[in-house]
Design brief:
107 residues, mainly beta
Length: 107
């Protein structure tokens, strides 16, 4: 079913999550075949938590779910792009996006 996806040695693939309306990158997480299958089935993002070593349905406890509009595979087959309609912030800190820390360039 997922022949075009190049899973890493742990059976994972990075998944970049982007807001379908604003195009803002919200987060990056990992998926395995089961979490991708569940995401397609539920229509909401499900990831693989490397720290807890278990499936993680985004928003199951916080209520900040992500309704999936589209899933794309990059040209190398080693990264997914998931376009979602978020229900609340993506980051566990309460920020809309996990990418809110800025590194200064050229200093």
């Amino acid at each position: 079913m997922f022949e075009q996806i190049k899973w890493d040695e742990r059976g994972l693939v990075p998944a970049i999550v982007q807001d379908v309306d604003t195009q803002q990158v919200l987060m990056m997480a990992y998926m395995n075949a089961e979490s991708l299958r569940l995401t397609l089935e539920k229509g909401e993002t499900v990831f693989w938590s490397r720290s807890r070593n278990e499936l993680w349905h985004k928003g199951a406890t916080s209520g900040h779910t992500q309704a999936v509009h589209e899933i794309r595979v990059d040209c190398d087959g080693d990264t997914l792009l998931i376009l979602v309609e978020p229900e609340g912030p993506a980051c566990h800190t309460g920020e809309v996006s996990c990418f809110f820390e800025l590194l200064k360039v050229g200093q």
